[in-house]
Amino acid sequence: MDFSPIIQQVYNALWYLIPLAILAGILKSPWFKGITGEFLVNTAARLFLAKDEYHLIKDVTLQTDDGTTQIDHIIVSRYGVFVIETKNMKGWIFGSANQKTWTQKIYKHTHKFQNPLDQNYKHVKTLEALLDIPASAIHSLVVFVGDSTFKTELPDNVVYAGGYIRYIKARHDVILSQADVETVTAEIEQLRLQRGFTTNRQHVNHLRQKKAPSPPAAPSIVPPITASTTSQSQKPCPKCGGTMILRTARKGKKAGNQFWGCATYPACRGVMKHA
């Protein structure tokens, strides 16, 4: 018996379910949830925070000693630098400041996830090392979006949805001058890696490598800088004596200009003009 006509009829009746299933998969994916959460935070900032007073920088990937770190949002103002980690989750959320993992509960399903305050801690420490401002001027803030409910008492800097606007506006003490705000904003824009697929892929690979066990590294020998190695492509740092590398300014009045910067930056901030 030929089942082809029956199969064709079934296909004609149900073909539209295929793109719907694909769309449902995309909507439920962590990638789409992340995009949605960041969009909501960005939109709230644009609507309720004055642009001349609060400077929003989104999706910032910075180089660290062991790879890269990715920050969802940074808001720079005279009242401090707010480092924001966004979580798009649903269900009941249980946690405390000192717990390594928090709990998400949806009916009978329980899921453990990293304490987002610990996750944001590295972001804050990275900015502390890169920016020449007091550590007290940098504030960690975690924002939950989506259909979630806090079932335990959480720290004041863990808020739900638009509550992060109230948290920021509640700070009235001026910490940074307007010149500081402009300098910090320009430095972040200059230090961030170029946005795009390549940067995101490298960051994801870095996270996977951190989770995977690795064999012990062989000791490395760094040759001393001598007259033969100090050439037009390699110079000694005037501050620490290490190697200088050629960099290009991305922002500010000197955007596009090249300069020599210490290879150990931000540990050493030695710079030299490029002839």
From TrEMBL:
Region (Disordered): 208-238
Record-annotated NERD domain positions: 33-150
Bilayer-spanning residue ranges: 6-27
Keyword Transmembrane helix belongs to the record: yes
Superkingdom assignment: Bacteria
Annotated Pfam families: NERD (PF08378), Zn_ribbon_Top1 (PF01396)
Keywords tagged on the record: Membrane, Transmembrane, Transmembrane helix
Protein name (Swiss-Prot/TrEMBL): Nuclease
Originating organism: Seongchinamella unica
Taxonomy of the source species: Bacteria, Pseudomonadati, Pseudomonadota, Gammaproteobacteria, Cellvibrionales
